Structure formats: structure tokens, C-alpha cells
Amino acid sequence: MIRIDLEKARPGMVLAKPVNNLQNMLLLRERVELTERNIHMLRSWGVGEIWIDGSHSSEAAFPVQNADALQEAIDRELENRFANVADHPLMMEIMRLAGKQIKRRLLRRETEHGTPAS
Amino acid sequence: MVPQHLKNVIQRINDLPTLPRTILRISELVNNPKTSAKDLAKVITDDQVLTARLLKLVNSSFYGFPQKISTVTGAIVLLGFDAIRNLLLTTSVFDLFSNKYKANKELQEKFWDHSLGCAIGAKAIGGFLKSEQVEELFVAGLLHDIGKIVEMMIMPQEFEQAVQKTRDEPITIYQAEEQVLGFTHTEVGRLLAEKWNLPTKLSHIIAHHHHPIKAGRFVDETAVVHVADIFCRALGLGSGGDERMTPLDMEVWGRFNFSSQVIDYLLQEIDQTFSDISSVLVATKAAEHSI
């Protein structure tokens, strides 16, 4: 069981202790699995820290077995989108960073919904 | 002097709906630091549709508040002024045009995703720059491409022809509009902004977001929306009619000169917030349709 900042909470993590608001009203019970929605809800209640099971990090929650295929698909898509600015070094850097973020998004979605990240 | 080719557009813009007065009033109140939750609640509760929408939203499963929120004041206290204003403005603008353009639903939905992404992007960039006008930037991002929606409504065939051209040739929608229509969404958007009596700043941003340097005293705000547009295109958040990058104006980029680390941070922020807000809008629509 570890205590983390709510900012570091990610879908798939499991609460090790119940979460209450400042008025001590129960917001989420122990053993509840976090989702985008309930993390957002906790944020809107001003919750700062939560207790979760194990030693999750956001990366640990991502399955990575299809990482190469996923990267290729993202690269192909971005190369098409950026074809008209391919001679511009800054745009190429934006393309690289966007690719990184799209990969994070797809892996997160896969973790949340169990759907293939493609 | 209005160019001849735009006269026909102006005539047809006059038939389009106007933005609800309540929304404009809410925007004014939120911008005023002296406004209390009670003042804001009074304006919202005068409008039954907005009141119902707000209460449905805060009681939707998205927020998952454990107790029922039955008053507008309660909702304002929970969500905050800015969130309330953004939410009501966003859903109102969406409503104004939804179901009016039936020819190509998919194109319209992608367009709204792009607008929302750009709104979130402009706010994120503004927040990073410690701008005091982040909410204005959100609205500017939301409405920057509004001229395209007008084109979709009043000249759907020609607009689709322009979209098709971006698939057949290596050009952006802006260039395709110039070739097919003889004008672009930036000019049409400005005409609509004038009809809606939107603030001059907003009208300038809409008119110059592809060439921010021409935005005169509003060049900074326009530059933020310009860069937000590029970030959203890069992330593939919706589509403004083409699937291409619009050229980055290096003259205004020099004002920001974001490092790779900052660009990475902003892209993450925009992408994550987009997922969250899209869920809210879906939750609102679902709640409204369930009545």
C-alpha cells in the first residue's frame, strides 16, 4: 500500500483505503478501481492524496507487447499528416512529440477498456 | 468595401441563429471579480433550459457526486465559475448548429472535436504563459473555425468539394477554400462574429488565426490560438476538414520559443483534458436524451 498525489493517480489503480472529502463524506470505497471519471470526480472535490495498492506507476500499468506495431502505425499516420511540412525541423519535432503522446493515449485506452491499441 | 463574392454569404448569414443573450451575460459575470455565486445563479436560473442542463450534468455519473445536487448555487460552488461558463457556452454553441447540417454528420462531429481541442489547447498554452485571459482563449479556440460551420450550412456542396480537394491534392482546407469558394472560413467567421456582436478581439482572432501577425493589437492572443490549432492537428483531435498540418508562422513562434520539454508537456495536457471534457459533453448529451 502506498500513498500518492492524486495527480499521479491513473486508471486501473485500486484504492487501498476509502477516500473522504473535507467534510468526511465518503467519496469512494476501499477496493474501488480508479477510472478517468472517478479520478476527475476526486479532483473536483479537491482531494490531494490517495492510498493505492502495490507500487503502481503509470508506465507499469501499460501492456507493452504490441509496442512496436503500435509505434509503426502511429508513425505512418503522422508522416501522412505532416507530409506538407516535412522540410521544417520544428514541425518534425512537434510530430515526434505528438507521436509520443498519441502512443500514451492509445496504451491508456487499451488498459482501461481492454481494446486493442490501434 | 465588401468584395462581391462575399455579398451572397452575408445575405445568408443574416438568416442564421444568434447566440443566446444569457450566455453572453454569464460570460460578462464570470469575467467580473466582484460577481458572487448568487449573482451567477440568478442569471442561470432565469433560463430554464440552462438550469436543467447544468443540474443534469452535475448529477450525471461523470461527476459521480454521492449526493444529489439540487440547486444551481450548489453546482456553481462545486464546479467553479469558469467551468460553469465554459460548459454552458460550449453546449450552447454546439446546440445552435447541431442537426442543422445533416449532409455529413461525420464531418461535423470531427469539426466540433477539432474546435473543442483547440479551445483546450489555447487555454493550456495561456495557462502555461500565466495569461489572465485563459477563459477568453478557451472561447476563442472554440470559435476560431466557426466560419467553416457557416460554410457547411449555407454552401454544403461547395464545402464538401473543398474537403474532397484536400484528399486529392496535397493542399490544406484553407487553400482548397480559396480555390473552390474564392474566400476562406476566416472571412466568413469574421462576418458571423460581427453578426453575433462578439468582442473585437474574438473577431480578430477568428479572422487571422492562420496569419496571426496580421491581428494588430491582438497578435499575442491570435498566436496562442494559431499554435493550439497546430498542436490539435498534430494530435489528430478531430478535423477541420483536412488531415494536414497548417504551416507554423515562425514570426509568432519566436514569441513563445517553447522548448521540446514544454511542447511535450502541453501536448500531454491538451490530450488528457480533451479526453476528460469529451466525456463530460457525452454525459450531458446522454443525460438530456434520457429525459
Describe the structure.
The complex is a heterodimer of chains A (118) and B (291). Chain A is an alpha+beta fold and 118 residues long. Helix content of chain A is 42%, strand content 11%. Chain A contains three helices and four strands, in the order βββαβαα. Chain A has helices spanning 36-44, 67-81, 89-113, and strands at 2-5, 19-20, 26-28, 49-52. In chain A, the strands form two sheets. Chain A has a two-stranded antiparallel sheet with strand order 1-4. In chain A, β2 and β3 (26-28) form a beta hairpin. In chain A, α2 (67-81) packs across α3. The longest helix of chain A is centred in the C-terminal third of the chain and has 25 residues, at 89-113. The radius of gyration of chain A is 18 Å and the shape is elongated. The model of chain A is unreliable at 56-64 (pLDDT under 50). By secondary structure, chain B is mainly alpha-helical. Chain B is built from 16 helices and no strands. Chain B has helices at residues 4-13, 21-31, 37-45, 48-58, 72-79, 81-97, 105-128, 134-143, 146-154, 156-168, 173-180, 185-195, 200-208, 219-235, 250-256, 260-289. In chain B, α1 (4-13) packs across α12. The radius of gyration of chain B is 19 Å and the shape is globular. The termini of chain B are far apart. The A-B interface holds A 25-27, 36-38, 40-41, 44, 77-78, 80-85, 88, 90-91, 93-95, 97-98, 100-102, 104-105 and B 61-67, 78-79, 170-172, 230-231, 233-236, 243-245, 247-248, 250, 253, 260, 263-264, 267-268, 271, 275-276, 279.
